[in-house]
Specification:
Largest sheet: 4 strands, mixed
Oligomer: single chain
Number of domains: 1
CATH topology: Nucleoside Triphosphate Pyrophosphohydrolase
Distance between the termini: 30 Å
Strand content: 35-45%
CATH class: Alpha Beta
Strand order of the largest sheet: 5-1-7-6
CATH superfamily: Nucleoside Triphosphate Pyrophosphohydrolase
Radius of gyration: 14 Å
Order of helices and strands: EEEEEHEEEHH
CATH architecture: Alpha-Beta Complex
Length: 133
């Protein structure tokens, strides 16, 4: 069983509307190629999800994670994979995107998220745990 840790990072835009950071990978995920999901990544051998999240976000976006809370552990869109969802902040929005890994990293409002391709597990998570609070 593989483990993935992702961070839900939100901010308010100039209109005081919540926006959420989503990224799109350069890796070919088959039918989900180009789809958006929260930043994060796979744990390495014997690595805790929190540690993986800190490492992955720093590697991919060049910013440090500040944890707020663990939200939930869910099944993934990928067979034999578990996703750990964390609410967190970052120390800067001045991203230094790893162009070998990430093709795009942007903040989206709920309305904007309805008009982009999002991984099904991500869409389900946001509908259940973020938008329907």
């Amino acid at each position: 069983m593989t483990k993935v840790a992702v961070g839900i990072i939100e901010r308010k835009n100039m209109d005081n509307v919540c926006e959420y950071l989503l990224v799109s990978s350069k890796h070919d995920f088959g039918r989900y190629f180009g789809y958006y999901y929260p930043p994060g990544g796979h744990t390495e051998a014997n690595e805790e999800p929190e540690t993986a999240l800190i490492r992955e976000i720093y590697e991919e976006l060049g910013v440090n994670v500040i944890f707020q809370e663990f939200i939930i552990e869910t099944d993934s869109d990928v067979k034999d994979q578990i996703t750990y969802w964390f609410k967190c902040e970052v120390d800067s929005y001045d991203f230094k995107i790893d162009e070998n890994e990430i093709s795009d990293a942007r903040f989206f409002t709920q309305s904007e998220m309805n008009n982009i391709n999002i991984w099904p597990a991500t869409k389900s998570f946001f509908e259940k745990y973020i938008f329907n609070k």
